[in-house]
Amino acid sequence: MKSVPFDVSADEIRAFEQAAGISPKVAFCFHRKGYVQQSQEEDHREEVWFADQMLKVWIAARNYTVPQGYVVIPPTPTYKMREAMYMAQHFHMSTINPDEWDAVDKSYVALIQAAQK
Questions:
Q1: What are the domain boundaries of the chain?
Q2: Residue 11's Cα: distance from chain center in Å?
Q3: Which of these, 42, 43, 53, 45, lies nearest to 20 by C-alpha position?
Q4: 101-116 and 79-89 helices, crossing angle to 10°
Q5: Which residues contact 63 (CB under 8 A, 6 or more apart)?
């Protein structure tokens, strides 16, 4: 049996089992870092395999989530983003001048570089 590739706490296991609806025929074993059968009298290898795979996917997804209060943005601004940044910088103007977008793009790149530090 392959073990779960990340350390998990008992609270995380409980949260996962409630969210994923894991079968009561299997239980997480912290020694093996994986799911095991509750009963040796019946064969529940499929449920064990399924629970292990689901936990691996859940942990991988959890590790790639965006923290609360942050957003994911593209490395280059979209048209709508340029438009919004331009209007924020030139709020008194009623028309957009695409010739001035170079300054908007430089501001955007500076924001991303500052966020990565």
A1: 10-63, 68-112
A2: 19
A3: 53
A4: 100
A5: 6
| 87's tokens | 């209007």
Reported residue count of the chain is 117
For 81, the 3-state DSSP assignment is helix
Radius of gyration of the chain, Cα coordinates, nearest whole angstrom: 24
pTM above 0.85, yes or no: no
- pLDDT tens digits along 86-109: 777 766 656 666 777 777 777 777
Q: Which two tokens stand for residue 10?
A: 């008992």
Average pLDDT, the chain: 78
Q: Which of 33, 81, 39 is nearest to 55 (CA)?
A: 33
Contact 89, 104 (CB under 8 A): yes
